[in-house]
TrEMBL record:
The keyword Hydrolase does not apply. This is Persulfide dioxygenase ETHE1, mitochondrial. It comes from Aedes aegypti (Yellowfever mosquito). It is found in: Mitochondrion. Its cofactor is Fe(2+). Its EC number is 1.13.11.18.
Length: 294
């Protein structure tokens, strides 16, 4: 028998093996753990695919993330490129001149300055921005206890140009915490309610762990999983996250509610350094020790 004949003969025998025999033979050589690893790998790839399918910003939507290195605060400038109307979320007093200059350089008109809540770790820049950019309106939740030109209720809409931002009440860190959602762009600004792999503390002001847990699970985690989330702070250099990531990897909020409450009760965090100065100032829309213009 020639070499070719032997190969063809062997091939025909393999093809004639019943499928059950092949499966049995495979199972005898492959450990069960290998199947588990394949399943886990497949699951990871599904997550990667899901995370890559986030919405791109529309060409007429302006987005800029800004940072204050002292308080580790992120501020966000959003705008309509065509109408030139813009808003800013969570501005910081010490950065108000920087932000006003940027708005002017880009040719925007800043219509609203919104705070996600009454902050305890920095003084808001809204009051100072009102002086630097006359006509701008300060905005905060009606439940915050802070002064502002405009108060928001749950699901109320703020418009800038053709875009809409929805105010979603997410209390727990404070009574007045809000998450701001721009649905068309697939983004939400979570303030201190949900941080990247964490959440705001609940041991001062009107903090309540059970309320915060429900705000995250019943509001933020019900947004589409590919929505990009932008918090008010990050202390490890992360800039953004997503609904899917936090639902899978947040070490606190992936627990059940009782375990979460237990975690929050035992954080043993130090007293906030700025709270005694920041909270009184923020009750007055940040109109407190504002630097005098030169």
């Amino acid at each position: 028998m020639t070499v070719v004949s032997r190969i063809l003969s062997a091939s025909s025998k393999i093809l004639l093996l019943p499928s059950r025999s092949i499966a049995t033979t495979s199972a005898s050589y492959i450990k069960p753990s290998a199947f588990a690893q394949v399943a886990q790998t497949s699951s990871r790839f599904r997550n990667v695919t899901m995370l890559s399918e986030r919405k791109p910003f529309t060409p007429d939507f302006f987005f800029r993330q800004l940072f204050d290195e002292k308080s580790w605060t992120y501020s966000y400038l959003l705008g309509d490129i065509n109408s030139k109307e813009a808003i800013i979320i969570d501005p910081v007093l010490e950065q108000a001149k920087r932000d006003a200059k940027l708005v002017q350089e880009l040719g925007f008109k800043l219509t609203y300055a919104l705070n996600t809540h009454m902050h305890a770790d920095h003084i808001t820049g809204t009051g100072y921005l009102k002086q630097l950019l006359p006509g701008m309106i300060s905005v905060i939740s009606e439940a915050s206890g802070a002064k502002a030109d405009k108060y928001l209720k749950d699901n109320e809409i703020v418009k800038f140009g053709r875009f809409e931002l929805k105010a979603m009440s997410t209390p727990g860190h404070t009574n007045g915490c809000m998450t701001y959602v721009v649905e068309e762009q697939g983004v939400a600004f979570t303030g201190d309610t949900l941080l990247i792999r964490g959440c705001g503390r609940t041991d001062f002001q009107e903090g309540d762990s059970r309320t915060l847990y429900k705000s995250v699970h019943e509001k933020i985690f019900t947004l589409p999983e590919n929505f990009r989330l932008f918090p008010a702070h990050d202390y490890k250099g992360n800039m953004e996250t997503s609904v899917a990531e936090e639902k899978q990897y947040n070490p606190r909020l992936t627990k059940d509610i009782d375990a979460f409450v237990e975690i929050m009760a035992n954080l043993n965090l130090p007293y906030p350094k700025m709270i005694d100065k920041a909270v009184p100032a923020n009750r007055e829309c940040g109109l407190y020790d504002i630097p005098k213009d030169e």
